[in-house]
Write a structure and sequence with these properties.
325 residues, Rossmann fold, 11 helices, 13 strands, 17% strand
């Protein structure tokens, strides 16, 4: 039985990946951010069977010693721990450097020290900035249009350097916009759906950006496919569906699911600074298809319906309290 570690295992994508790994028969450790209440975020709500099969290791990704202890004895490491909220990166950029860059360095060094067979590092389509051409392939220039994306570029380059300098078997997995059950309220789809459940008025930011939306189980399956493929060692791999939808069009689709016609008010506090807004992200996913046989299985309408049902069923997790940074 292969032993694996998932950093950020209690998060949105991480918890789905943990469930998938358990079902596939892996011995799973989940490295989760310590809190004094002893609560492990989304791993609190997985099935009892999954919960009993995982080893939860509390700690801080910025603590190299804690990370090294968690990595010891593992064959594969999936590194998903990160600060990801773009608006908050304008407020607290230093914390993004500590978590996303120093934290990634700690994971890489622990993997090198302990001879990990595969390290999967999580990137983001935000590292591309606004598309200079579409679809965006893995050769597209990287542009740090927010402190968040700048720190992810730094983390990606560290991961690349450990392959080139030490031949540490690393793959950079670059998901485009992932959505689905358990996503936090700060993201656009839960933001719209939470307000849609409450009424007909939506308070949003810019409606023009175009995003490539991938359902969370497809993203998790992409991580597992990357770990199993020897062909992607040392490479960066996009995970996206290969088509885009504007926020305006997305609001219309959610309106049909909710059975409402919306009145949309644009709030300045929800709009990114002009130079920081990424206008268009559409993936070229051919490498993922060719090198690891990954093809998204959940279409947008199915995924939005599943997400809407999840949010309706968990009102305490999605209170309509206004703008969430």
């Amino acid at each position: 039985m292969k032993s694996v570690l998932v950093t950020g295992g209690a998060g949105f994508i991480g918890s789905h990946l943990v469930e998938m790994l358990v079902r596939e028969g892996f011995q799973v450790r989940a490295f989760v951010h310590y809190n004094s209440q002893g609560k492990w975020h989304h791993l609190e709500n997985v099935s009892a069977e999954v919960r009993s099969a995982i080893e939860i290791i509390p700690g801080d990704i910025a603590d190299g010693g804690a990370v090294s202890k968690a990595v010891a004895g593992c064959e594969w490491v999936f590194h998903l721990a990160a600060l990801i909220g773009i608006p908050y990166s304008y407020v607290a950029p230093t914390s993004y450097v500590q978590t996303n860059i120093i934290g990634t360095l700690n994971v890489l060094e622990a993997c090198r020290t302990h001879g990990v067979a595969r390290m999967l590092h999580t990137s983001t389509s935000e590292t591309y900035g606004s598309a200079q051409y579409v679809p965006i392939d893995e050769k597209h220039p990287l542009v740090g249009q927010s402190p968040y994306s700048a720190t992810k570029i730094g983390a990606d380059k560290l991961a690349e350097s450990y392959w080139l300098s030490f031949e540490m078997p690393t793959t950079i997995v670059r998901p485009f916009n992932t959505y689905g059950p358990r996503q936090s309220q700060r993201a656009i789809i839960p933001t719209v759906m939470t307000q849609a459940i409450s009424g007909n008025e939506l308070k949003l930011g810019n409606l023009d950006p175009v995003r490539d939306l991938t359902f969370v189980t497809d993203t998790a399956a992409g991580f597992l496919a990357a770990a199993r493929s020897e062909k992607v060692i040392g490479k960066t791999i996009n995970l996206g569906v290969g088509s885009g939808i504007s926020i305006r069009e997305l609001v219309g689709k959610i309106g049909k699911i909710a059975g409402r016609d919306f009145q949309v008010e644009q709030q300045d506090q929800r709009v990114r600074p002009e130079g920081s807004e990424v206008q268009r992200l559409i993936s070229d996913n051919r490498l993922a298809k060719e090198l690891m046989d990954w093809i998204p299985q959940v279409d947008l309408d199915q995924g939005l319906q599943a997400t809407f049902e999840h949010i309706k069923a968990h009102p305490l997790d999605y209170p309509n309290r206004g703008y969430v940074v």
